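Bumping my old thread because nobody answered last time. Still need a sequence for this structure:
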């Protein structure tokens, strides 16, 4: 009986800790791409994201985030990208470090709110890029 309860608790915790999904665009094979990315860590300087499909290192990109019903687009540079696992049927999963460039005051404030909310729920520790 305890084992079943523990399994449900673990599932509930995973659902509560669901990471925000951003849209990440960059260059892959010389072609601009747009894909969904899970944010693993976020600071005012950058982010660590997880996604499918590798980007060219040091290429320019954009990260789109939605906060309080507003869509913000952040110009960034996609730094390191590495394979972290291979999902059968889904392909390779990558982690990419992203460095933010030219944050507007509104976007910076939206990032501050996201970081505070996440920390309050046991999320990011602020160690990111």
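Sorry it took so long. Here it is:
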């Amino acid at each position: 009986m305890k084992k079943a309860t523990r399994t449900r608790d673990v599932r509930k915790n995973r659902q509560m800790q669901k990471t925000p999904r951003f849209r990440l665009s960059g260059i892959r094979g010389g072609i601009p791409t747009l894909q969904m990315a899970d944010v693993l860590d976020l600071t005012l300087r950058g982010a660590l994201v997880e996604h499918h499909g590798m980007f060219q290192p040091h290429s320019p990109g954009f990260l789109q985030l939605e906060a309080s019903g507003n869509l913000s687009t952040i110009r960034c540079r996609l730094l390191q990208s590495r394979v972290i696992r291979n999902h059968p049927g889904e392909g390779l999963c990558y982690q990419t470090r992203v460095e933010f460039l030219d944050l507007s005051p509104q976007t910076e404030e939206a990032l501050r709110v996201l970081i505070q909310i996440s920390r309050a729920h046991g999320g990011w520790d602020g160690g990111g890029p």
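The CA atoms of residues 67 and 110 lie 6 Å apart. Let me know if any region looks off to you.
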